[in-house]
Design a protein that fits this description.
With 174 residues, this protein is mainly beta. The protein has two helices and nine strands, in the order βββββββββαα. The chain has helices at 113-124, 163-169, and strands at 2-3, 6-8, 17-23, 31-32, 36-45, 48-62, 69-84, 103-106, 110-112.
Length: 174
Amino acid sequence: MVYKMKILLSDITEDGLDLDFEEALESGSLRLLSPVRAMLRVDKVGSEVLVKGEIRASVGLQCSRCLKDFSSDADVSIDVVYHPVEELKGEERYEVGKDELDMDFYRGDELDIEGLMLEQILLSVPMKPLCSRSCKGICPKCGADLNVKTCSCEIREIDPRLAVLKKIYGDRKE
C-alpha cells in the first residue's frame, strides 16, 4: 500500500506490488502543472527493492531563448534499485560510481517514492528548455521578441576571439 507517497516494505508480497496512482506533488525547483501519474512495479529481492515503471506530468518551463513560459510533458521511465542504508555504515562519504546511478537507499521499513518521482522528473527537464526548435529568441539590443516581430537593430559585434583578425584585415567588406 502507498501511504502519503511511502511504501511499507512489509506490504510488498512475493508477487511484488503494482501501483497505479495520480498525486499532486509540490517541489521548490519544479513547477508542476498537473498531478504526477505513476504506473510502477515494486519487487523485493532479499534486501533490495526494485522499482520500475513510468511517470508522467506536465511541467512549466521558461524558454532559454525568448524567456516565455510554456508547458512540456515529462514522460519518464524509472528503473531504480534501493538498498538498505545500513549497507553504508562506517562510511562517512560514499562516492557513487557510473554503474550505480540507478541506485538509492531506504531506511527502516519505508520507501519514500515522492522524492524519487520528483528527482526523475527534474532529471528529464532539458538544461536549456526551448518553447520550440525554431525559437528565434530576443534581440540582444532592443529586447524585441524575434518570434513576433523583426527589429531594425544592426548588430555588428565581433566575437572577442576574432577581434585580432579585425586588426589585421581592417573593416573590409569584400
